[in-house]
Write the structure tokens for this entry.
Amino acid sequence: MNEETAPLTPEADRHATCTAAPRPDFCGIEKPAPCGIIIFGSCGDLSKRKLIPSLYRLFANRHLPDGFFMLGSDRIETDDSGFRSIMEEAVRAAFPGDFSSDSWQKFSDRLFYAEADFNSGDFFVSLPARLKPLEKKFGTGCNRIFYMALPPAVYETVISRIGGAGLASEENGYSRVVVEKPFGSDIESSRHLNGVIGASFSESQTFRMDHYLAKENVQNILMFRFANSIFEPLWNRRYIDHVEITLSETLGVEHRAGYYENAGVLRDMFQNHILQLLSLTAMEPPAAFVSERVREEKVKVFRSVRPVPLDRLGEYVALGQYGAGSINGAAVPSYREEPGVNNNSNTPTYAAMKLFIDNWRWSGVPFYMRSGKRLSKGKAEIAIRFRAVPHLMFSNVLEPVGSLSDTIDPNLLVLRVQPDEGISLQFQTKMPDSRACLRPVLMDFRYEKVFLLDAYERVLLDCMTGDQMLFVSGEIEELTWGLLSPVIERLEGMKGGFKFPNYPSGSNGPAEADELIRRDGRLWRAL
Ligand code: BG6
């Protein structure tokens, strides 16, 4: 990487920048072997908003293999041409102003549809016969990906029936199953689902989605930590005071009340995205950059997380639910007024939580995590707050105002996942021309370009190439549920104890969350 550090002049000092070197050829995007992808729930929201647009863009940018087709199946009564029209509308909506009719034409020739009642076994019995001619026409052999874009309640039936129809066999090609989150709703259900999948598919055939893992700067965490020698020696309890993980959204529950009312923020954002970010931040260096080794290190992190003391939950967890307010100047309703939400709902839309990792590296370092909907800003970041300097040698020459008195902002490293993906390091410098005034400046790395692949494009390609690095193992699903299930159960048992709503839309969250960190003598970073 070429590094250009701008001189810290009064004008330029806020953002010293680093620019990245061009991508060498061998860093190109790998082209997978021919395959057919079968999407169950192909007319649903996920397919329309993410899967089909991602496949279209991969196709238009020539990242898909020449041998490729997609068979959609759903309850909707339509045929291939009706399905293509529905999908065209969805793709146009996903890329307004960036839609090529020519690419669409070529792509849509590879889209097919099979109406299905997933509760009846007949569809699955007839599926091999439906696939055969397509596999022949597109030369995909028997390489098949079965994508569950379905409500989780249907996973079990569909996965067992795929297995029952002999379609999980890898005799003549690969067979993979992709399962979206939520992966169960507690420890028992996730264990059960692992059992159901395991009865037909092996672990190496199973791809459990967490789209946060595919975000570019999340993938970058391990590179940043383990391809640089200057950070790792500091990455521990001796130098780090605490870690903050923030996933905030301005969006509300939208049209997903049916799911969200039963999930709430702890199941929706913590069990998966937040705990994955925690593990990448906290793990030891894997022996090799391959999925098995990386997963092993994540497992060790989860096994070292200290269980939250259920009799002192208030010190460790703060919950919230949004009330009415305004987002970007527009009035928005409270959670309880959203369509499909019970008007006495006690589902939390915000949570802050503190965890400790009991191992040599992290003993005593709190990890503060927060996530919520309808907050003042939407962002995802990991902030590493270093310890304060041990001795203030300047204090004898300084005046207290605008200069160093008894505190200096400690160093802060922020990994920005979104928006404005990048990394910044804040450190102190002498204020130019002053005798001994200090002020914090930022050294900031920003990705220069829009990424070639978005998170769904990345995971779809990885699934085709069989790389499980960005997917979650069955063991990790169970470990993360094991950490959260007791907490969620206890909180659900005391729902009367919450006075919701307790933060207005467009705010920074509930006062209880501020209190959680303030009690430890710390403050959240501003959103
Ligand atoms: C999903 C959650 O997993 O992640 C949603 O179910 C949330 O509730 C979404 O809005 C956030 O993802 P992103 O990529 O928009 O930050």
